[in-house]
Design brief:
By secondary structure, the protein is mainly β. Helix content is 6%, strand content 48%. A hairpin with a 3-residue loop joins strand 21 and strand 22.
Amino acid sequence: MLRTAIILVLFFAARLAGAQQPAGLSNLRTRVADVTLTVQYMDSLTVVPPLVSAADDSTGQQLDVRFFSIRNNLLYTDSAAFSRAYPHTRKARIGYRVLPVDLSTRISRLDTATIRRNMRPDAIEFDYAPYQPATNPWETGGIASSGAYTRGLSFGNSQNLVFNSNLNLQLNGKLGNDLELQAALSDNSIPLQPDGTTRQLKEFDRIFIRLKKKNTVLTAGDYDLTRPTGYFSNYFKRLQGAMVEGTEWSPGSGRDTFSYRGAAAVSRGKFARQTIAGQEGNQGPYRLQGAEGERFIIVLAGTEKVFIDGQLMRRGLEDDYVVDYNLGEISFTARRLVTKDSRIIVEFEYTVQAYLRSTLAANTGWNTRRGRIYFNFFSEQDSRTSGGAQDITAAQRRRLAEVGDDLRNAFASGIDTLADFDAGRVLYRAVDSLVCGVPVTVLQYSTNPDSAIYTARFTEVPAGQGNYILALTAANGRVYRWSPPDPVTCQPTGNFEPVVRLVAPEMRQLYAVGGEFQPFRGGRIQAELALSNRDLNRFSPLGDGNNTGGAGSVAFRQKLPLLGSNGWETGVYANYEYTAKTFLPLNPYRPAEFVRDWNTDNSRDTTEEHLARGGISIQKTGWGSGSYEFGLFRRMGVYEGGRHFGQFRLQKTGLRFRGNSTCFAPKG
């Protein structure tokens, strides 16, 4: 319909133009046509129907134009009917009008004939190929990709226009020459952590590239460093850096292998273990705190381990608990009811930004037919020069150097003087007072430009150890008010002080060497020696005499044959562990319920420890198993106790019975 309207407009415009222009510029044309042909070409321009005139080319006799028709610049002649009406006419002079353009010509915005083509096989340009299937540029050979790339706008009546972008790309495949690629690339303008409500976590804003060739794997980016083989080397770290690991076969040795792993990265978190006192009927949320008592922390997703009564819980709405990583809160589902007697232990890592923390790790192992030997090294240290979110002044460095490893006294004044009055901040003035006969200077909230020249940062301290309390005011910010001490005892009555807690850079190292051997059939011996080196304050040499400490463990296990056993298996085992009073492990390596099992506490920084255990076990497939163990635990000069532990498990014809008994006798 639109095309017909355009043709009519052009036709009338052409007729008007032809009527007003000279004959040489007229769009009226004539052509001699052979009337014996049914179809013949008329003109290179669009012919406007109907025809103007038709006449015999020899005699000039006018012919009826109804025997002719025009379609797509072609002249169609009804030859049979024309020959009956005009039997002597062979040529006809046709008069017609044309438009100034050819409407049937193909028009394209891009001339494909001028497109450049790659002439070299190694060219990196992308050519225009509209008739070829579209493929991603990185999908070459055996590389497959998946993911999404999004752009978004967010706006509201109380916020400005915000442009958000998200990229999530996964690559997987072979690059050739036995080289395999696995990569995850993501970039979010708003960094997000996964929601801890499912058993499996979908990582956001995580980037890593993994290249594998035969038995060697190189990982770069965000990765997890898991616990190696060993007794004392217990850690799980989320790092940003590079890691290489592999296995090499010893030539001519058959089954002997040499395995190795090395990692260098920037650590993203710090380990903490917290015991939560459950409340009757309260499923949460329970707030998690940092290792130094930090109240507002961000937990690294997927690093938590939750134990209730010694049993490891599973994350998920349909399982045992959920975690809000950004708020540092944990809640338990109806599947796991919490009571006042519940023993809840949570191990996790949380973000630290005070200093730039670097991590180095190396693990090697030699495996043979008769056993294996391994060596583990781990080092994690805060930089003394490259700072993070904490800005350390020269005075604060001197203060940290003075306190040494006693970081309980690592405080600095939080009072600062302003050059000019700032009405947008909470300011104080200094007021002299007499407290218990001693002159002191206290801070008082003020809006007077002449005297309000002090700003202060307050830190919460235990009740009765501070001189200030939080005041309720209409000011735009938190205001603290001085609380007079007790008039009788002159003891403080507040819980805030105008001081800043200083965080010192620390270093943790652990060296461990061990082995596992089979001296004879059915027997196995395990032994390990460890050396720890921990400096709690790298700014100060004070207290460095107790930085290093040693530990060792040895274990023996032997299977015993029974005469006429008829499928019964029995074995004996014995373990011994020694830790010096200055030995500080990276993370707790003993079971979560170790303290309860021995009816003691977690304090072990003042004495050495000895732990010995031995027992016997028996089992038969289809019947069950049973075991008995006796242990001795000694903290020199503090605690000494023995423990008897027995358990059994019977199963027969679909029935199961399980039980255990514990008896211990502490002596201190």
